[in-house]
Design brief:
25% of the residues lie in helices and 26% in strands. It has 2 domains: 9-75; 77-195, no CATH class. The chain contains 6 helices and 11 strands. By secondary structure, it is α+β, with helices and mostly antiparallel strands. A 5-stranded antiparallel β-sheet has the order 4-3-2-1-5, covered by helices on one side. Strands 6-7-8-9 form a 4-stranded mixed β-sheet. A two-stranded antiparallel sheet has the order 10-11. It comes from Pseudomonas fluorescens. This is Phosphoribosyl-dephospho-CoA transferase. It is an enzyme of class 2 (transferase). Its EC number is 2.7.7.66.
């Protein structure tokens, strides 16, 4: 039974037959090799989920849709926090550096991006220059002061760390929320919009 599907979840079960015609060859190769796809934020028909296919190159990202009934496995970013990767790259060293602080933050957190893909699937996705991408589940507000303190901790890591705050209404970059701008970009399945409070229901209805 598949649990609720959230952005950044990794899914297995996609087949080349589910793809539309005229997709790039690398997309078919990725799916045929058994790579998972990643849930993305987009509206879709009932019984489907919006997903992205990763290719070997950074610019190779392909948006498509997957039948929920085809899902055979689901891995969430939170399940990867304590997975040990066999390879030694700055992103994984940064994860080891930050793990105890994030564990003690009081928030649920997870690993996404290239590091999450490699830790979950075993397929090579990282390189020496890879950033570490993280998510933080923040159902209630994280103050800007606390956001700034968290950025300071992330900046002690051996590589750049990008963290997304997952609010009930979408995602916002931690570094934006910790910055000086009064409005930040909130992304959800419907739109990306500038808001002053990513946790405000009133702003979403405006």
């Amino acid at each position: 039974m598949v649990s609720t599907l959230l952005a950044h979840d990794l899914l297995w079960g996609m087949t080349p037959q589910q793809l539309l015609a005229d997709v790039p060859a690398w997309v078919i190769e990725s799916i045929s090799a058994g790579h998972p796809v990643v849930v993305r934020r987009a509206l879709c028909a009932a019984g489907q989920v919006a997903v992205g296919v990763r290719g070997p190159l950074r610019e190779q990202r392909f948006a498509t849709f997957m039948d929920v009934a085809a899902i055979t496995r689901q891995v969430r970013p939170e399940e990867l926090c304590h997975v040990q990767g066999p390879r030694d790259f700055p992103a994984l060293r940064a994860l080891a550096q930050l793990r105890s602080h994030l564990d003690g933050s009081g928030w649920a957190w997870g690993v996404s991006g290239s590091a999450g893909f490699e830790l979950a699937s075993g397929f090579a996705a990282l390189h020496e220059g890879s950033d570490l991408d993280l998510i933080l589940r923040t159902p209630s507000p994280l103050s800007r002061v606390d956001a700034q303190a968290l950025v300071a901790v992330l900046d002690t890591a051996v590589c750049r760390v990008d963290l997304q705050l997952q609010t009930p209404f979408g995602a916002v970059a931690l570094r934006e929320w910790a910055g000086a701008s009064s409005r930040v970009l909130l992304k959800n399945a419907i739109q990306a919009t500038l808001v002053t409070d990513p946790w405000s229901l009133q702003e979403q209805a405006a």
